[in-house]
Amino acid sequence: MAGTGKTPTTPLWEVFIRSRGGLAHRHVGSLHAADATLALHAARDLFTRRGEGISLWIVPASAIIASDPADAGMLFEPTGSKIYRHPTFYEVPEEVGHM
Amino acid sequence: MATTSIRVAETPLVLYALRRADDALILSHRLSQWIGRGPTLEEEMAFGNFGLDLIGQARALYAYAAAIEAAGHDEDDFAYLRDASQYRNLLLVEQPNGDFAVTMLRQLFYSAFADFYWRAMMTSRDATLAAIAAKSEKESAYHFSHAAEWVIRLGDGTAESHARTETACEALWPFTGEMFESDAAERELCEAGVIIDPASLRAPWRARLGEVFAAAGLALPSPDRWMQRGGRSGRHSEHLGHLLAEMQILPRSFPGAEW
Predict the structure, then answer these.
(1) What's the CATH number for A12-96?
(2) CA distance linking residue A15 with residue A32, whole number of Å
C-alpha cells in the first residue's frame, strides 16, 4: 500500500464523494491523515472545494482488498467472448413493446 | 511608498464594517503566508481554504463600507491604501504565524468567537449585515471545528506538541480580551439593533474553549489576566506594518496595475 509504510503516523485514506442525492459515492482520490476525523476534514478541504458533493466517505486504504493485476487475464478476459450477456444481444419482438 | 493613503470618513457603521473586514483580511493574509510552507499538503490546502473564506468575508464588508461611506472608495482602496494606524483589526489576527501550534490556536481563539458572533448577527436589523453573517457563520463554524480538532491533538499529543501549544497559549492569550470590547460608536449601533454586544459572547466563548482545552489536557488561562488592546483604534503591534508593506507594495508602487 503506497504511503502506509513510509508514513506510519499519517496513513493513507481513500475518499469517496456522493455528488447528488440518489447517486452512488464515487472514488475521487486519496490523502494522508493521522486519524479518521482529520481524514474527513482533509477530504473536505481537498476534494469538495468546487461544490463536488453532498456526502463524503473515507476508507482506510489498508481496508481495501484489491485484485492482483497479474490475475487480470484469468479474472476478466473470459468475459470478452460472452456477448450474449449484454441485453442488446437479443432482439425484442415488436409485440412486446417497451419492457 | 508612492501612493498616498486614502482618508476614510469613519461614521459608526463604516468603522464597524472596516473593523470586521480588517479582522478577516489580516487573518486571511496570515494564513496565506503558510502556502508553500505547510506541514502537509492536506493542511496547507485547509489554510488556503480558510484564507479564501476570510477574503470573501472581508470583500463583502469592504463593499458595504464603500457603499455607506459613498466617497468613491472601493474594496481595493480599503485594503491597499490605508496605513497600519488606519487598520482597525484585532491585535490577535495580526500576530505572526509562529509554529503550527500558534497558527492553530490563533485560529481557534478567533473562530470560536467569530462563529458565535456571526450566528448572533444573523438577527441584525441591517439586512446586508445579516446576510454577510449568515454566510460567514457556516465558514467560521468549520474553521472552529478544524482548529479544535487540531488543538486537541496537539495538546494531547507528544510532550513536544503539548509544550509548544502551552507556549502558544501564553503568547496569544493577552490578545483575546479585545474581541469582547466595544466603544461608544459600537454601543450606538448595538442599541439600534444593528449589531450585537460582543461582551455577551464572553461566557459562551470561554465555555466552548474550556471543552476543547479539557480534551486537549491544557489549562485555560484565567479570564482576569491583563489584556492587550488598541487594534480597534489603530494602535497596532509592529507586526502589522511589516504585513501591510508586503501586502500593499505592488498596488502602491504601480497604482491600477492589472495582471
Answers:
(1) 3.10.20.520
(2) 11
Nearest to A45 among B42, B150, B153 (CB): B42
Residues B223, B180: contact at Cβ < 8 Å?
no
Interchain CB distance below 8 Å, B49 and A38 = no
Residues A20-66: tens digit of each pLDDT: 999 999 999 999 999 999 999 999 999 999 999 999 999 999 999 99
In this complex, the residue of A37, A42, A49 whose CB is nearest that of residue B42 is A42
Give A 43-72 residues with CB within 8 A of chain B: 44-46, 49
Task: Please give the single-letter amino acid code of residue B8.
Answer: V
CB atoms within 10 A of CB B255: 11
Instruction: Tell me the ipTM for this assembly.
Output: 0.86
How far apart (Å, rounded) are the C-alpha atoms in residues B246 and B244? 5
Closest approach of chain A CAs to the CA of B31, in angstroms? 15
Burial of B197 (0-12, 13-18, 19+ CB in 10 A): middle
Calculate how close chain B gets to A46, using CA atoms only, in Å: 6
Q: Look up the CATH number of domain B12-253.
A: 1.20.1260.10
